[in-house]
Amino acid sequence: MGSAGDTFLARTRTAHRRVFRSLTVPNYRRFFAGHAVSVIGTWMQRVAQDWLVLELTDSPVALGVSTALQFLPTLLFGLWGGVLVDRLDRRRTIMATQAASAVLAAALAALVLGDVVQLWMVYALTLGLGLVTVLDVPARQAFVTEMVSPENYVNAQALNSTVHNAGRLIGPAIAGVLIATVDVGAAFAVNALSFVAVLLGLVRMNPRELHRVPALPRAKGQAREGLRHVWQHPELRACLFLVAVVALLGQNFRVVFPLLARETFGGGAEIYGWFTSALGVGAVLGALASAARVDATAWSLLWWTFAFAGVNVVVAAAPALGLAMAAIVALGVANICFNTLARTLLQIRADPTMQGRVIALHSLVFLGSTPLGAPITGWVCEQWGARTGLLLAGIPAGLAALAVLPWLRKARAPREE
Q1: Residues 410/236, Cβ–Cβ less than 8 Å
Q2: pTM over 0.85
Q3: How does DSSP assign 132-151, residue by residue?
């Protein structure tokens, strides 16, 4: 009995070390700690901003405009943001973008707490945050390759995903309490302060221990060069195609879940909340499972695309609430495993001097599809119900996975010769 217990403990310790191995790297550990605090503040701001717009206007259209303004700059300028990330020092770029985000959050907090805020001010600050995101997102994701060695890319990205999804569970809850007990402006103020943690982590890093990538010299046509690089590499092309299809039609959970809760299962906001929490639980489990991986391949991404497609169909067919909840947990696992593998695969397979541009293309496809995919999904659900919206998420994803099979076979053929 004692031997079995010792074996179990030894295996548990080994699994723990494997899942959290990137935290043994001091620079990544400092970044991770600061990011964990900051992402909670980010989710607080998202909830508080939506609530503020509704308080000011009582208009879903205004809320949609606010969301679109945050993603529009990535859609318009995302690729050029990647060019700048390849040219600039990534650590200093993140320090600048995080400081700018803190200033924007503090300005919104001051306007709200001073009771002088107007809708156009919220729009202007939201657009400013969107412009900052054009640089911030590709810089943060590419910076992972400077903090850890290649064998830990998957692990570090998965740990980042774990923090992001944990923040999605914690941040909105704190924001709700602050809005109810203090003021909506308090949530913006706390978010502004949360950036101190990530800035402190970046300042405390040892630059000599970073795996720096040579800066890209200025030249014409560098954005087009990034596009050509992706198109000429079958694995990168397949990856971005799958991301485009899944992001456009498969990840509109905020559109489908409220309708699934109300119209399919006859519930209200509480069931919608359960669905969202179930997705979050699955995401955390999936991120931790991904953290145990050593490598990311296009074939593993393909199988997770099939899994994502299949689970959506299962949720659509679930006859009872309990079964739907269990399937949504599985959907959270498949969704986060797909997203983590896609980001990591792009980093591993892209030329180091192209990482900023390739990841910017991912951001453009992943975030830029939101203003297009959500209305399409909403229209389908309005015509044929929420279950059809889930089928719209699953079936095209499965077809897209089948479509990229020839590309991946072509990429594998030279290695087998």
Answers
A1: no
A2: no
A3: HHHHHHHHHHHHHHHHS-GG
